Please model this.
Amino acid sequence: MKKVYVLFYGSIILGILLWLFFFIITPIEVKNELSSFITSFIILNYLALVFGFALPLFPISVFKNTEWIKINKLKVLETLIALILISFVFRYWDLFYNRNLSFWNSIKVNNANAGNHFSFLFNLLSTFRVIYFVPLIYYYSGKIKEKRLLVLCFFLFLLPLIEGYLRGSRRIIFESLGLLFLILILSKKINFRSLKIYVISLPIVIIFIGFSFFVVQGRTDFESPNEFYKKIITSQYNDFVPPNRTALRCFEESENSLLKKALFTEIHVGQYIVHGVYEMDYMVSKHDKHTYGMFNFYLLIKFFNKLGITKVDLDNLNNPTGRITYITFFGGLFNDFGWFSLIAMFLLGWIQRQLFILRKRNFLVEPLIVIFLFANIFLLIFNFIRANLLLAIGVYLLFLIILQIFLKLRSIQSE
Model:
């Protein structure tokens, strides 16, 4: 049980330290200090999450008939990998041939094309792609030794990166690599006591972050790097946490292009991670109504709109201020529920506690634990729940339901 506490509380502490680390090292200035309202809201919601986890109320029991899965874990893993690969085939067929995305288009053109030619059939057939990370969890949890399957499990993490590149989405890239890193940590494949892991990881992270930003630069419509830099440095991130004078002076006066790129990357990454809390503060000051869950369930509402079941104006489910910036997970909570978010966070903590209890008996809950731990780390930075993680939870639960139905039918046939 001690390990349970370490993983849960560690994910929360790591997230706070990550935000503080970039806040301290990034050469930015804060235009307006955080209001006491926002500080109180964030602290109390963190406490509600912790209290929900600390109080083991009404323990639940599910996934009882899993002996066949344990015995046939190789078949389950192979089936899941095949299902996800097929889903990606349908996804990229849809993007390339139905929506006309291309590696040679600009990001702006690709995103415009991606919003057109929606196909319910292709979306349905590509549903299982969002749980691309689950096979690797199964591989390590099931202690499988087939190297061929391990290669395929890692290969699945590359497939979302294609869409991330096509659409210039750093979130997709960040999510894919973040989940991979977390899974390797939880599976004890990364030893933090070894200096070698830091020596290898730090350059890889820096190179990758720099590469992702400058790939975006190379596929935008700007005529020169300086034009791109100027656009980024005057973007909406800078309204609340702009580069400080020293950084701007160094950036403007330096003739070393490599130094410019390094400084630019560090500033932009820091802004990307830090600014959401200040965006949330601004959002709350302009807030006039709540969306009662529709903000965080945006993907579901969007899907129902496409089917004609609902007719919700999706523009009303973006940042209420009309800005194209992140407002953190807490911002999404406030937008949906206001102070009733404390109840939601308490329940979120309770659910995580139950999953950890179930984990001792059944490895099938491990992917859900990974999703929640990942979300815990980035509560102050991104709202991954509003993005793909909520969809991943739904699709994974659908997979478990199908698996349970299969086991039920199998037990009936054997009687």
